[in-house]
Amino acid sequence: MLTLHEPVHFLDGSMVFRRFKKLTAALKTKASSRNYDGSVSTWAQSSTDSGSLKRIMVFGDSNAFRPDNNNTCWPSLLENKDPLHLKVFNESCDGRTTRYDIGEFNGLRVIASTLAAHAPLDYVVVMLGTNDVKSKYGPPSVADIVSGMGQILHVIDLHGGCAKPILLTPPPLGNVTSGELASAQSRIPPVAAEYRSLAINRDIRIVDIHTILDVVTDLESDKIHLNASGRQNVADAVWTNLQEMTPPPEHIAPSVRTCSAEL
């Protein structure tokens, strides 16, 4: 409870106003620790604390970009979990791979420039691997795909400043019968398994959406892209992991931004 610790005597108008402003500011700071959904944010701090806003970049493919890269893609749903303390930059692109193709489709070629565009960052969430198993790229072996993801994580280490990477396993595919991902549903589980090992070896956080999502209830009719339920489930899973990764506010130095020099 917020209380005034000194006895109240007769005060002139200016002193009453100053005390009222101080009490109101304290109440606003206290209220800002609550998320829009009513839960309490573990990283909520005073609005004057420069460390209170967490900057997150999502680097993904169409399942992070669609359906609009705006209000209903899962990165936007994530930001809506706590818009007072989260700023999410969605740097995702339809068709993006870890290191195949050209331009924006080649994640390894553009990851450094996107990191620079949004620096400083606290977290980089990587959601790639589905497009890598397309027939037009070979398809590559599981080892080749995981190697490409390893290179992307290495670039984050080199150019991401203090940003902590969060790796997402590729979502499951349904029974795809045509197109470049025909029969690819059998090629995704080994990639997901090796991503788990990669995360363990690099000591980074992994969100196993391949296990979380259901091919019946979380995918569009094309059996490739996330539907509204799937997008919400991914946002929920990433949000839970972010909460777990964030130290309590009293352990955060508000005005100093530091990170390990190790790569």
Task: Give a short overview.
With 263 residues, the protein is of the alpha/beta class. The chain has eight helices and five strands, in the order H-E-H-H-E-H-E-H-E-H-E-H-H.
Order of strands, widest sheet: 2-1-3-4-5
Q: Examine the coordinates and then state which fold CATH places here, giving the name of the CATH topology.
A: Rossmann fold
Distance between the termini: 45 Å
SS summary, helix count: 8
Q: Provide the residue-averaged pLDDT.
A: 82
The helix/strand order is: HEHHEHEHEHEHH
Total beta-strand segments: 5
Structural class: alpha/beta
Helix content: 25-40%
Poorly predicted sequence stretches spanning 5 or more consecutive residues: 1-40, 43-50, 250-257
Number of domains: 1
Just give the CATH class.
Alpha Beta
Give a short account of the largest sheet: 5 strands, parallel
Strand content: 5-15%
Assembly state: single chain
Name of the CATH homologous superfamily: SGNH hydrolase
CATH architecture: 3-Layer(aba) Sandwich
Describe the protein.
By secondary structure, the chain is of the alpha/beta class. The chain has one domain: Rossmann fold (3-Layer(aba) Sandwich), CATH 3.40.50. It has eight helices and five strands. Strands 2-1-3-4-5 form a five-stranded parallel sheet, with helices on both faces. The longest helix is centred in the first third of the chain and has 19 residues. The chain starts with 12 loop residues before the first helix and ends in an 18-residue tail after the last helix.
